[in-house]
């Protein structure tokens, strides 16, 4: 009986009930049978993703199994209809942006292997002063910057022990328990929140960014690395600065002065790394060149020999570079064996979301849903969807939430009333409605289950869940306001 009351078990059977219902009943008026079957599969996947009934990447494989069997795609005139249908369902799993993510992950592995991220972190902290408030701000800045290029989980895992060590030093220099408690809580939450916020800044910073970019590219709107940063980096900066002020002045007021022991402790940690190695220098060079290539790709594209350069191509070149470039030991900077640490599940999850989205659009389900939704202003719609996604993501995977809701927003942007006079899609509106979903999915700060960084710092057992919920609510509201404002007023100027 206990097993049947488990949320995962309940979610598993609810998903099967949804699918069975659509298979055993006729579609509603105006919806094709294939669109009705897609509805069942979408509800099945959404239920399993929301409850993690089975591992998220496994759920993401469902389109490969069910879409061909259910005849979602009509290839009756093909020589091998079954093979053609499977190929159609499988194509999104090899989307070009999968390789953008893959290349970014491999470069991140090289950075972690040579400990370059730790050297950068400690160097930045030493440069920002040791006054308690500024120290917390320094940790947040470092966390955000590293998470722009490396998974926020890895960033948090690296910075947490450094933060705890610094907190231990500060504890020796203050007599007031409340002051220290506020400092430690603000520091640890700041590391986690900043890691999540930093991931918003770049296409490779977090999975939802790649999901939404890929889906709107399918509509014909190209989104460059530079364009995304032009929108998302200011959002991250504002949330980082305002969030730091909220944490240290409003939520957990910090009133601890600078002290030499803290600086000495950071210097000792930095000295333990020793002199920068040849391997670190080579990885740093590859990293800098890759980042510059992404940022200035439009300029490079005007060069004769680089006209075929793409953001995903740059990522793969970077990945090849860290394998080919010799280390001080004579081997590559990284070996293939290290790729066991790659988050392959995220890449599969990404492909499954795209495959599901393609089926929604091609089956007519998308157009049918669009006709059901009342006509409301874009501003109000953006606000409503941002609020919904922010609080929904507290309990569900941000990747899965993005993969589920972005197609719906694209549908709303491409219904008949929103088309351009020539009958084509309003791509600016597609971006304005879809991108906020991904941005909002990275603004869940209240619960340990919301994001891996939250879970990691909560696992330190240095603060209560009530303290996290208190701080997280402030950050959730901040995220809602900033994302809505930028999506409404700034995004149309870029896309």
Structural descriptors:
single chain; 495 residues; mainly alpha; 0% strand; globular
Question: What does this protein look like?
Answer:
The protein is mainly alpha-helical and 495 residues long. Among the domains are: 1-93, no CATH class; 97-341, no CATH class. It has helices spanning 7-24, 33-51, 56-59, 62-69, 81-90, 96-113, 116-127, 132-147, 152-173, 177-199, 207-217, 225-251, 260-272, 278-295, 297-300, 311-324, 344-362, 365-372, 378-392, 398-413, 427-441, 452-458, 465-494. The longest helix is centred in the last third of the chain and has 30 residues, at 465-494.
The main β sheet shows up as: none
The helix/strand order is HHHHHHHHHHHHHHHHHHHHHHH
The number of strands is 0
Distance between the termini: 53 Å
**Number of H/I helices:** 23
Q: What share of the residues does DSSP label as strand, in percent?
A: under 5%
Write the SSE topology.
Blueprint: H1 7-24, H2 33-51, H3 56-59, H4 62-69, H5 81-90, H6 96-113, H7 116-127, H8 132-147, H9 152-173, H10 177-199, H11 207-217, H12 225-251, H13 260-272, H14 278-295, H15 297-300, H16 311-324, H17 344-362, H18 365-372, H19 378-392, H20 398-413, H21 427-441, H22 452-458, H23 465-494
Helix pairs in contact: 1-2, 2-17, 4-5, 4-17, 6-11, 6-16, 7-8, 7-13, 8-9, 8-10, 8-12, 9-10, 9-13, 9-22, 10-12, 10-22, 11-17, 11-20, 11-21, 12-23, 14-16, 17-20, 18-20, 19-21, 19-23, 20-21, 21-23
Summarize the structure in short.
With 495 residues, the protein is mainly α.
């Amino acid at each position: 009986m206990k097993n049947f009351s488990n949320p995962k078990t309940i979610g598993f059977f609810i998903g099967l009930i949804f699918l069975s219902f659509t298979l055993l009943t006729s579609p509603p008026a105006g919806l094709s049978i294939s669109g009705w079957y897609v509805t069942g599969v979408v509800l099945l996947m959404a239920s399993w993703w929301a409850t993690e009934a089975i591992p998220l990447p496994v759920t993401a494989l469902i389109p490969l199994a069910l879409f061909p069997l259910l005849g979602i795609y009509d290839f009756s005139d093909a020589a091998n209809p079954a093979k053609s249908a499977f190929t159609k369902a499988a194509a999104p799993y090899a989307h070009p942006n999968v390789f953008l993510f893959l290349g970014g992950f491999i470069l991140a592995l090289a950075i972690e292997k040579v400990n370059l991220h730790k050297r950068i972190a400690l160097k930045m902290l030493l440069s920002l002063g040791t006054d308690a408030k500024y120290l917390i701000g320094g940790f947040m800045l470092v966390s955000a910057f590293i998470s722009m290029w490396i998974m926020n989980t890895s960033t948090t895992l690296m910075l947490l022990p450094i933060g705890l060590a610094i907190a231990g030093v500060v504890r020796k220099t203050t007599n007031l328990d409340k002051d220290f408690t506020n400092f430690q809580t603000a520091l640890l939450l700041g590391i986690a929140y900043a890691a999540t916020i930093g991931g918003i800044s770049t296409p490779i910073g977090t999975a939802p960014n790649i999901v939404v970019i890929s889906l709107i590219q399918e509509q014909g709107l190209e989104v460059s690395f530079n364009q995304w940063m032009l929108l998302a980096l200011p959002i991250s900066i504002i949330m980082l600065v305002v969030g730091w002020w909220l944490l240290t002045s409003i939520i957990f007021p910090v009133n601890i002065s600078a002290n030499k022991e803290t600086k000495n402790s950071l210097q000792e940690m930095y000295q333990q790394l020793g002199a920068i190695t040849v391997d670190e220098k080579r990885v740093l060079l590859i990293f800098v060149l890759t980042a510059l290539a992404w940022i200035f790709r439009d300029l490079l594209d005007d060069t004769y020999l680089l006209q075929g350069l793409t953001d995903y191509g740059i990522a793969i070149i970077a990945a090849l570079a860290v394998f080919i470039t010799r280390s001080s030991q004579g081997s590559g900077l990284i070996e293939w064996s290290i790729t066991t640490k790659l988050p392959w599940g995220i890449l599969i999850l990404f492909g499954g979301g795209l495959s599901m989205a393609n089926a929604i659009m091609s089956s007519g389900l998308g157009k049918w849903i669009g006709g059901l939704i009342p006509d409301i202003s874009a501003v109000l719609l953006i606000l409503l969807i941002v609020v919904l996604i922010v609080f929904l993501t507290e309990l569900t995977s941000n990747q899965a939430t993005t993969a589920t809701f972005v197609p719906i927003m694209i549908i709303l942007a491409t219904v008949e009333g929103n088309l351009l006079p020539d009958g084509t899609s309003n791509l600016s509106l597609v971006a304005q409605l879809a991108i906020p979903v991904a941005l909002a999915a990275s603004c869940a700060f209240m619960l340990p289950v919301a994001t891996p960084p939250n879970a990691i710092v909560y696992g330190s057992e240095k603060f209560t869940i009530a303290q996290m919920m208190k701080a997280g609510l402030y950050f959730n509201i901040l995220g809602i306001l900033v994302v809505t404002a930028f999506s409404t007023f700034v995004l149309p100027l870029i896309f």
